[in-house]
Specification:
Number of helices: 6
CATH superfamily: Glutaredoxin
Number of strands: 5
Number of domains: 1
CATH topology: Glutaredoxin
Shape: globular
CATH class: Alpha Beta
Order of helices and strands: HHEHEHEHEEH
Distance between the termini: 31 Å
Largest sheet: 5 strands, mixed
């Protein structure tokens, strides 16, 4: 099962069709550079081999249910390791997994990792 399929599988419930459309796999540097030109962007670094990442994904899901205007760009830290490290370098944010990075105008407004990724923290910072 590929990363995109796994993300889709995580969001198969009745409420999840709209959420899955706002959970976008980010897998190339050009698209990442495009996000730096957006007024706001939310990145989630996720590892399919990590239970803490799945906990973070559940928190992101809770956040997305209540915030229909937000999209989250998910980076597969295993399958797109080079991109994940390039993001850390470009943003000057130490690489973590799981990790959420909120950008405003291409600059880091907030970031969190592991169990600090909660729906309520996302509400406060997005």
């Amino acid at each position: 099962m590929g990363f995109r399929d796994m993300i889709q599988k995580l969001f198969e419930g009745a409420d999840d069709a709209a959420i899955a459309g706002r959970l976008l796999v980010l897998d190339d540097a050009e698209r990442f550079e495009g996000l730096l030109r957006e007024p706001r962007a939310v990145l989630l670094k996720h590892s399919a081999a990590c239970s803490v990442s799945f906990n973070a994904m559940r928190e992101v899901r809770k956040f997305l249910v209540a915030h229909e205007e937000v999209r989250v760009h998910v980076v597969d830290v295993l399958g797109s390791r080079e991109l994940s490290l390039a993001i850390a370098d470009r943003l000057d944010v130490p690489h973590q997994s799981p990790q959420v990075i909120v950008l405003r105008g291409g600059k880091v407004a907030w970031h969190a990792s592991h169990f600090s990724i909660t729906a309520s923290a996302l509400v406060d910072h997005v």
